[in-house]
Specification:
With 327 residues, the chain is mainly α. The protein is 74% helix and 0% strand.
């Protein structure tokens, strides 16, 4: 009666009194669980929900409340509870999508896919659903399925960066397999604006520091005559940022395109780190000649000369560096 009259505070007080004398009273447990949920008291929600599930294993409120509490407490066991909730109740649209995201965030990608591809997801924000499904397929190495989901995604949202990025990366992965029927060349020819799309994908991936993605996409760009120079630079950068051997790529880049400040600095750094001090000195010198006040070139050249015991020359460079960077 208190609940019906919206006197929730009084109802809660009565429910708590009941639980003191009868800890297994189901209606009282349900009222207290709902209150703990509202208060975001997750440990108490978990305790009461678990107690209720001991009495009623399919209680929908208890399953949902326990799942929410476990999720907020960062417990992987929440996935099993969410699965029980999905089996017990017809969960639709946004709520179903949010549960799928929990599975994705815990690395349970196949479970995420199963939830998203069920009919119950309905027409809820198709773009979000396809995007998460594609990411899940990519995460478990199902390149062709990822590619197909990206195609569906790009049909309804042609400029979706996640869809474009994953499609490019899936193509790259599939090219490593004997039976693949796709190729980066076919992808480049399939869309009028793919050159610009590739350029945007590389830059957006770099902004996210997703250098693995930059590595994949830039290799596709290299195959495009209009993007080859830019693609080579990004490919070399991606290898450098990941700590991979980029010397060959930077060397080829300079051979093809001529003098380049960034290329000289990167090659110099590689030789410096390998204690090839004479070669490092040469490349830092070449960089400084292109940009006489470049702090990175001056600092690297000074360091190389110190290693080579060219103290007087190093001091002059360090004095110049102090003028450029007084702080």
């Amino acid at each position: 009666n208190r609940i019906l009259s919206r006197d929730l505070e009084a109802a809660l007080e009565i429910a708590e009194d009941i639980l003191h004398t009868n800890p297994e009273n189901i209606p009282a447990l349900q009222i207290c669980i709902e209150d703990k949920l509202r208060q975001k008291e997750w440990a108490e929600t978990l305790e009461l929900s678990s107690k209720l599930l001991e009495k009623e294993t399919s209680n929908v409120l208890a399953l949902k409340s326990k799942s929410i509490a476990q999720t907020n407490l960062g417990m992987k066991g929440s996935l099993e509870t969410w699965s029980g909730y999905l089996e017990t109740s017809e969960v639709l649209g946004k709520e179903r999508f949010d549960i799928a995201r929990h599975f994705y965030n815990f690395g349970e990608y196949e479970g995420c896919i199963s939830i998203l591809e069920a009919e119950e997801i309905g027409e809820f924000e198709n773009e979000k659903v396809l995007q998460l499904t594609a990411r899940s397929y990519y995460s478990i190495g199902k390149w062709e399925e990822c590619y197909k989901k990206c195609d569906e995604l790009l049909e309804i949202s042609p400029h979706n960066l996640t869809g474009l990025r994953l499609k490019m990366r899936a193509v790259k992965r599939m090219e490593d397999r004997e039976k693949t029927i796709f190729s980066s060349k076919a992808l480049l020819e399939s869309r009028e604006n793919d050159s610009e799309a590739i350029r945007n994908l590389i830059r957006s991936s770099a902004m996210l520091s997703d250098w693995d993605a930059v590595e994949d996409i830039s290799q596709i760009a290299i195959e495009n005559e209009d993007l080859r120079r830019e693609g080579m630079r990004w490919y070399a950068r991606s290898l450098s940022r990941q700590g991979k051997d980029s010397l060959r790529v930077w060397t080829e880049f300079i051979e093809e395109n001529g003098e380049d400040l960034e290329g000289y600095l990167e090659i110099a750094k590689i030789h410096y780190n390998n204690f090839d001090n004479d070669v490092a000195e040469d490349f830092f010198t070449a960089a400084k000649e292109l940009d006489p006040e470049n702090p990175r070139a001056i600092r690297g050249l000074a360091s190389s000369k110190l290693r080579l015991t060219k103290i007087t020359e190093a001091v002059v460079l360090l004095e110049k560096l102090c003028e450029l960077e007084p702080d």
